[in-house]
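Case study 2.
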Amino acid sequence: MKKFFSLAAATAALCLFFASSQPAQAGSITLTLTGTGSQTAGPYYIYPYYFTVAQGGSSTTGVSLMCISFNNEIVVGESWNVTEATAGSLGTNYEEAAYLENLASSSAPGSNARADAQWAAWFLFAPNAGDVDPADNVNITSLIAAAAGQAGFYAGYDVYTPIDGSQSTGGDPQTFIGNPGGSNNTVTPEPSTYLMFGTGLMGLGLMLYLKKRNGQTTVLPQGFSA
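Prediction:
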């Protein structure tokens, strides 16, 4: 019995160590705007915006994202830190914006469909942008309705929200959204994952103790010893 409690204590300590040493989310993320496409809607550049995404000592270049902040401005070469969250965790408008990002990314470069999708995404968060895309004078409210019907399918898209005061120049940066399938998407185990792992180890220890106490022989998987 003493041996079992020693194992349990060691396992608990190991779990607490991992839980405390591992963050619940991935580390700091920095976006640097490296360029835009050539297409505009009125005087505004639209999707795609190209970024270098830096995180944990590594970086990914050429990441294309959609802007969803109409009222803020950024310049090529500007960088800032962001928080990363899924569209689904932030609310319906972000899921709808994710649908519109997917529509823009699958539309031909230079097409009115791409411009309309970008303008609809801006209108979602800034009604003062107006509901008519100046690229082709099309009212985009039908796109908003379509996005509302499809939003749930895009809840996993990533939203990059700027951290105030972290920008390298200028005023508040813009918020961007993109496909989580890119190499910049990172998942870090939550502390609960380690606690579940530890619970399993403790259960295994108890099973071994009871079997030994009853004089039974236990066959362990390769790599384990009693």
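Residues 29-178 form one domain.
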